[in-house]
Amino acid sequence: MSKEVRRVTYDNKLNVEVLSFCNIEQSFPKHFHDYYVVGYVKKSNRNLICNERKYLLKGGEILLLNPHDYHECSSNKDVCL
């Protein structure tokens, strides 16, 4: 089993927060942010529910969430690339 890695970096010049999660199968309950969220799924698959619509995020895909978009996410072990 690979080690979980959680990294948070904040760039003061760009006013951007970057979160990097590796080997995490944790679910994230329904929540929202006051800012835009840009996500990249490097590999694996995730189930996303955003504003009551369901999506399957696959490795190599990028997502953009608007401020105040309610969303939740969980791992998807049923789909393998």
Overview of the molecule:
This protein is mainly beta. The protein contains no helices and eight strands. It has a four-stranded antiparallel beta sheet, with no helix packed on it. Strands 1-2 form a two-stranded antiparallel sheet. The protein has a two-stranded antiparallel sheet with strand order 4-7. A hairpin with a 4-residue loop joins strand 1 and strand 2. The mean pLDDT is 83.
Helices and strands, with pairings:
Layout: E1 5-11, E2 16-22, E3 28-31, E4 37-40, E5 45-50, E6 53-58, E7 62-65, E8 71-75
Antiparallel strand pairs: 1-2, 3-8, 4-7, 5-6, 5-8
Instruction: Briefly note the structural class of the backbone.
Output: mainly beta
Q: Determine the strand fraction and express it as a percent band.
A: over 45%
Order of helices and strands: EEEEEEEE
Helix content: under 10%
For the termini, the CA-CA separation is 18 Å
Q: What's the total helix number?
A: 0
Short description:
The chain has strands at 5-11, 16-22, 28-31, 37-40, 45-50, 53-58, 62-65, 71-75. The protein has 81 residues and is mainly beta.
Highlighted features:
single chain, 4-stranded antiparallel β-sheet, mainly beta, 0% helix, 81 residues, two-stranded antiparallel ribbon, 53% strand
